[in-house]
Amino acid sequence: MAHFSGIELKNLRKEAGFTQKDLANKIGISRETVVAIENEHPKTINSLSLEVVNTWWGICRASVSEASQLAFKVQVMTFFSLQ
């Protein structure tokens, strides 16, 4: 099963200038969940909801480069084409 890349999500967070704790608070999840997502913990990454990914993206997108925005959009299109 395809999943979102925790590494890509981590790169978005870091480029946007958020700590794991900051982003977790903005999304409404625990810092531990952010760590598990970014480290691609199988149980967490496989149950990652579209709502969390969408919120993560919404928080980070205004602060990241156009190249990072494009890379994320490609990841989303790839994910949905594999579903």
CATH superfamily: lambda repressor-like DNA-binding domains
Q: Tell me the number of helical segments per DSSP (H or I, 4 or more residues long).
A: 6
Structural class: mainly alpha
* Whole-number mean pLDDT: 90
Distance between the termini: 8 Å
Architecture per CATH nomenclature, i.e. the level-2 architecture: Orthogonal Bundle
DSSP helix fraction: over 70%
The ordered H/E elements are: HHHHHH
- The low-pLDDT segments are none
CATH class: Mainly Alpha
Strand content: under 5%
Oligomer: single chain
Rounded to an integer, what's the Rg over CA atoms? 12 Å
Q: In total, how many domains does the architecture comprise?
A: 1
Query: Got a strand count?
Result: 0
Biggest sheet, in brief? none
CATH topology: 434 Repressor (Amino-terminal Domain)
Question: Judging from the principal axes of the Cα atoms, what is the shape?
Answer: globular
